[in-house]
Amino acid sequence: MSSAASVSPSAPGTPGAAGHDDRKVPPVADMARIIGLSIPAACLPDVVANTALLQGYADLLGGFALPDDCEPAYEYTP
Predict the structure, then answer these.
(1) pTM score
(2) Cα(34)–Cα(27) distance, rounded to whole angstroms?
(3) Burial class of residue 26 in the structure, from the number of CB atoms within 10 Å of its CB (0-12 exposed, 13-18 middle, 19+ buried)
(4) Quick one: which of 3, 63, 52 has its CA closest to 29?
(5) Of 4, 7, 64, 70, whose CA is between 20 and 30 Å from 16?
């Protein structure tokens, strides 16, 4: 196991290196090892923070229920 793996939070619900709540953050070092990605130990806290941010956005979108009779948006105009 890489040295980066020893820096990742081990227990859910304990504040990580960046001081945020890691309850919903997957073990970043384990995911990186599975896909063959090397994350330097100095970068791991920021990667964990970004993963938590993205997980929050994913939870937000996943919790947004659309009714079955909702019309699709065929054209988007900002």
Answers:
(1) 0.52
(2) 11
(3) middle
(4) 3
(5) 64
